TrEMBL record:
Start and end residues of each Fe-S metabolism associated domain: 10-133
Name of this chain's protein: Fe-S metabolism associated domain-containing protein
Organism, as annotated: Rubricoccus marinus
Gene3D superfamilies found in the cross-reference section: 3.90.1010.10
InterPro entries named among the record's database cross-references: Fe-S_metab-assoc_dom (IPR003808)
Length: 140
């Protein structure tokens, strides 16, 4: 687990349950735009995570041993924007090995699993799997 992910988990765990939804929404509002160089690929439908009901597009890469995560998610999917934003913040610049060790119970550790339905939890699991697979391919 990266130090930044530990900090994010601590932030969520220290917040009251009713404030965690607002924390997610704030992260969704701060979601960065997709860099221009990936927009044509996104328009062609490449990089889509099909395991997720929301339109989630990932363009991860590895440069000089550091992971770079780029993504595009429409504003009407704030939960996935927030969750992917957490992954981007915690793992951008990390090693591929760190990405491979994303905790499988991350939503529980954040204290937000009870706030999400089964479909969103499964969608997030698909996002993490897709990210890990893409990074493993890019680093080999």
């Amino acid at each position: 687990m990266t130090d930044r992910l530990r900090e994010i988990i601590d932030e969520f765990q220290s917040a009251p349950d009713e404030f965690r939804v607002e924390m997610l929404l704030e992260r969704a509002r701060q979601f960065p735009p997709l860099p221009e160089k990936y927009r044509a690929l996104r328009e062609k439908g490449l990089g889509r995570v099909h395991e997720c009901m929301a339109e989630v597009y990932f363009f991860p890469e590895v440069k000089d041993g550091a992971v770079r995560i780029h993504s595009d998610i429409p504003g009407e999917a704030p939960t996935q924007r927030a969750l992917v934003g957490i992954l981007m913040e915690a793992y951008d610049g990390a090693s591929p090995e760190a990405v491979a060790q994303i905790p499988p119970d991350l939503l529980r550790q954040l204290g937000i699993a009870p706030l999400l339905g089964v479909q969103r939890q499964q969608g997030f699991s698909g996002i993490v799997s897709r990210l890990q697979h893409s990074i493993a391919e890019a680093s080999s």
